[in-house]
Specification:
alpha/beta; Cobalt-precorrin-4 Transmethylase, domain 1; 7 helices; about 40% helix
């Protein structure tokens, strides 16, 4: 592990279950300075979570001094998301109630995204100011979201600490 990687910390965060105030307070308590939005579409349906729709989210993060990056290339493809939706239906669950990703999704994301992912290059893109980096998608449970797969890869490759932020 490089000296630079040793000083990095990653957190993951979803939005479901958070209030707006609670969400931004969690980021601040964790000391997040760099925010990586890894969603395909940067919006959430419904007024309850409108604060994480792209323009509002970026404005609030800027007010807090948190740099924002969007990495659509790390989001699962619509086809892969559909395969997870199909698996959820077969199990009688919904996206917001899912507690873990299905095997077909994990294998697909690993082949589609992680097979070509370079952890060191990813961190380099964030710049020297990145110390505590948030990986963001919407699901409440980290294990139900691709952000946990990406975080595990970064932890394995770089030996970094990973903390999963959850609503209180």
């Amino acid at each position: 592990m490089t000296e630079a990687a040793a000083s990095l910390k990653f957190v993951t965060i979803g939005v479901y279950g958070f209030t707006e105030a609670g969400y931004f307070a969690a980021l601040q308590r964790a000391g997040v300075d760099t925010f990586c939005d890894i969603r395909w579409r940067r919006g959430v349906r419904g007024s309850e979570y409108a604060f994480v729709n792209s323009a509002r989210l970026q404005k609030r993060l800027a007010e807090l001094g948190i740099r924002y990056f969007h990495f659509r290339e790390l989001a699962p493809s619509p086809e892969l998301r559909q395969r997870q939706t199909d698996a959820d239906k077969a199990e009688g669950t919904t996206k917001r109630k899912r507690t873990a990703l299905g095997e077909v999704f994990v294998a697909g994301y690993s082949a589609e995204k992680l097979a070509v992912f370079d952890s060191r290059k990813f961190v380099e893109q964030l710049g020297a100011g990145a110390k505590t980096i948030a990986l963001f998608c919407v699901e409440r449970e980290p294990a139900a979201c691709h952000r946990s797969l990406l975080a595990a890869r970064l932890q394995r490759d770089l030996g970094v600490e990973v903390v999963h932020l959850r609503p209180e």
